[in-house]
Specification:
- By secondary structure, this protein is mostly helical.
- The chain has two domains: about 45 residues, Arc Repressor Mutant, subunit A; about 170 residues, Tetracycline Repressor, domain 2, CATH 1.10.357.10.
- Helix content is about 80%, strand content about 0%.
- Helix 1 crosses helix 6, helix 4 packs parallel to helix 7 and helix 5 packs antiparallel against helix 7.
Length: about 230
Amino acid sequence: MAQTTRAKSAPAPGTTRRRLIEAGLDIFGEHGYTGATTRMIADRGEVNLAAIPYHFGGKEGLYGAVIGHIITTVRGQLDPVLGEIEARLGQGRPEPGEAQELLQKFLGRLVDFVVGSKEAPRFSRIILREQMSPSSAYDQIYEGIMRPILIMAATLLAVITGRQDGPDRETQLRAFVLIGQIMAFRFARETLVRSLGLEGYSPGETAEINRIILEQTEAMLFGLQHRSGSATD
């Protein structure tokens, strides 16, 4: 009896779209927007090249979908703690000590994602490229990720340091320093891995980095509060 050959079924539309976004994360991260080609992405995703214009309208549309995926994923990790802090601030101005606890909780969550998550290495390559040579897509990254993070850090820092009128320019710069110390562990990962022989980053290494960042933050806040108190004497 002749055997019948069953044709390989095509991926479902949702699966194809996910494959292309996942492939786009890697290819755009490795080659940048200009160096990436739709053929590279289709091959990495193991889908037909025609699927890119069908699902996204072309390379630009796919890049926008990749950026959207990054923003959605990051916000999915940060929004619970951001929402908790925003709800607390909506009840009235907290005392400096409580604001410091909220800031440390927020920074700790940021460390868990930026340093310790499996998504961060893939996301960071695209975000770093956009930082160095921003395209129109950076507006989405800034509004969706960077701006909310900096506003929250600056708002809490203003409460901790006793600024009644909200964060001024200096407070916003200090907030940037607080966030920057976390980002350095991602964007300069290879330097730290080589200098200390780290795995880059295991759960234990992430916990160690978290502890050190929170200690550094506490020392910084102590100095600012002491300076602020001395200035009012």
